[in-house]
User: What shape does this take?
Amino acid sequence: MIFNKKIYLALLIFLGFYVATSLNASATPSIQDKSQQQYSNLWDRIRNGFALALPPDSRIIRKIEQSYTQNPVAFDRMLADGERYLFYIVEEVEQRGMPMEIALIPFIESAYNPLIKSNSQTAGLWQFIPQTGKNLGLVQNVWHDDRRDVIASTQAALDYLQYLYSKFGNWKLAIAAYNVGEGVVAKVLAKNTHRGKSIDFYELGLPSEVRYYLYKLLAVKDIVVNAKKNRLQLRSIPNRPYFDQVLIHDHIDISLVTRLANISPNEFSALNPAYNRYVIKVLDQPRTLLLPADKKENFLKNLETYQDPRFSWRFYQVKKGEKINDIAARHGTTVRQLQTINGITRNKNLVLGQKILVPIETAYTSRQQADVHIVKKGDTLYHIAKRYGTTIDQIKLWNKSDENLSIGQKLMIVKS
Assistant: This one.
């Protein structure tokens, strides 16, 4: 999506107005509570909220639909990826009184994959470019990229779409402006108005790629409405939260989070795709973690009773003349691992006084018993982690090593 920096001030003004009106609306009965009671399948709730009509000539919609229906495996995979996030986004869209087609935009932008990579530097479910994210207050640093944060990026996207609707007074134009930029839409709109031409979306003369963007969104909407007609079986999604939020106030290793929550690294990454390093670094304010709803309470109990250090790295200030290989050797780690966790590029030199993270010995590695695995031909970290019921990141942490293994290498595997 494209965002014009000039609108930033106007957006802030709109958000202030939105917050004020939201406070007034908070006294009314919860829309979400009613919707959760009314529907067991989230798709039924989504269908009930659709509000945008198909174009008069639906041939292009049918053509787009065929590209999905002819590859049902890929379409089903996209729906499966969206299951983690859809309930939360549907709740937010419904609470704001927006058309439910908005909840389908991540299908078009990212196929509901927050870790998708593109050549245009866009990131996250809503595919913000770096400058757009910055303008909308989404922090991007070596530790985390909030364009990929499920909560932060969704709030930013919905705020922006509401601003666009307040400007154009039409949801189709707002969605078009989200895709191509409000300047393009405003210019075409002003041109048609000046010439006395139609300002209907389908007759406006917007660039073909913008029209296709909306057609694609409406095609997905039509598939959801007419799944049986299109010979597709929509995966049933429970109309309840998939994840819950946990506030983290102190630095913590991601591997420890997965261990205490009893979730896989893949599940953690899917719910918390914003994090770039092995650790969650808490800077000016607490970080929000997402955990499967049925894992939150156990995680909080385990975290409360956990007595060992939660953070296996400490800050080290670079001294005069020190090079990264010297620091790595002194702290029993590798240059590559130091570069990875600190976001240091391969050819970048350290500077005097620079603070970098170096590993520290953790209490649990020194107290608990450990197995020693001798690397054999064909061994990979993935297979070793699977064999011992641990994670790749945890093995790296225990052994202060990187991805490279050598035959005969000894790896320490701490027993739980």
